Amino acid sequence: MNNPEISFSKAAHWYFSQNYRYGTWDGEDCARDNEWSGFGFVLGSGGDPLPIPGDYLTGHQCSHMVDVSNGQAAMRLMEEAAPRKTAEWNGLLAYDYGDSAAREAADRIGDSLAGYPLLDDEDFYERERENAARVLVDSYDVPEDIAADVVSALSDDGQTLCTDCHSWDIDRIMSNLGYRECAECDKWLATTFDEPLHYDCAECYAEDDCECISVMVDGYRHGNHTVTMSDVRETLRGCEHCYPLVYPYGKNVA
Ligand SMILES: [Zn+2]
Ligand SMILES: [Zn+2]
Ligand SMILES: [Zn+2]
Ligand SMILES: [Zn+2]
Hints:
Elements: E1 7-8, H1 10-17, H2 24-33, E2 38-41, H3 61-81, E3 86-89, E4 92-95, H4 100-115, H5 121-139, H6 147-156, H7 171-176, E5 179-181, E6 188-190, E7 196-197, H8 199-203, H9 212-223, E8 227-228, H10 229-237, H11 243-246
Parallel strand pairs: 1-2
Antiparallel strand pairs: 2-4, 3-4, 5-6, 7-8
The protein binds zinc ion (4 copies).
One zinc ion binds at residues 218, 222.
């Protein structure tokens, strides 16, 4: 016989017996490609093969983050215990079941996950915070330089860091950090004033054929002051040309 027999772990036997897509020969191929004498799966918390997720997010961010963290930690632990005896196989973590050091490391990982959901708490919390910061920037328009502060404030506030579980209420946090929503475009502005406006957003309130708003905005811009909705209202009320157009029922009606 040219090909020595490849030994399979119990979990690998079971996996191939109930999988319609892959058979034991696929496991044998993997083992031979890697010059292994056996084929087994590192097992996760439920006793199923430990997934090695790709970048594509499936399910909740929180559970995806657990899978990513555990997958990375397991690969690291396996590589330390038995170099080149572990490989990603179709999104699962496979190893050389014929190698005793690899087998023992895989057993330790499986036992550990059966008792506690995370292999490396610190790694998981770091990923969770990084992901939360990314969601804040992408979906909550939070400026990148304060995203980490908002994540800390969310944790201090007792809000979960998974927006799939719970959507965030960040108005108060942003206000504590010195940010308010622009009254026109709802994006964050670094200011403590109520109803602030971006300079360009304030310009939207200019009437045709009148410079009053542009002149006011220009002055604030040069002085680096925040324009607010009330500045806009006052300017329009104080303008001979604009107030009859904007406030046809009188100056004192908002
Ligand atoms: Zn979640
Ligand atoms: Zn704006
Ligand atoms: Zn100017
Ligand atoms: Zn005007």
